[in-house]
Specification:
The chain is α+β, with helices and mostly antiparallel strands. The chain has one domain: HIT family, subunit A, CATH 3.30.428.10. The chain is built from 3 helices and 5 strands. The structure holds adenosine monophosphate and zinc ion. Adenosine monophosphate binds next to loops.
Amino acid sequence: MDCIFCKIIAGEIPSKKLFADDSVYAFADIDPKAPFHALIVPRRHVDSMAELNAGEADAALLGHLLATAGNIAREQKLDKGYRVVINTREDGGQTVDHLHLHLMGGRAMHWPPG
Ligand code: AMP
Ligand code: ZN
């Protein structure tokens, strides 16, 4: 499959690794939108959040992705706060069709997002 994040997970495209385990991989965003900007992705290719449901397996994966974002935020000492975003499909502004969580911190975020 021609997926840039699958290639990053496989090590075929370099990335700055922040965390890895059996089911997720986290790395620095190449075009950071905040002083700290990480992407957390499942190792298994999933196009987007819209492909997942509340069944046990998907819920466990989503929970693990979120908990990993929280762990990385703690490690990075983002104690003042941070933002986690999952852009989904066209209207959500998704540009890479492999599910990913953005973890951004190190500055005050605006609301509502654009
Ligand atoms: P989204 O627009 O939500 O699909 O986010 C895709 C993100 O992937 C963007 O923030 C890009 O900067 C990031 N990105 C694209 N290519 C790479 C890459 N090779 N390494 C790290 N991040 C990337
Ligand atoms: Zn993929």
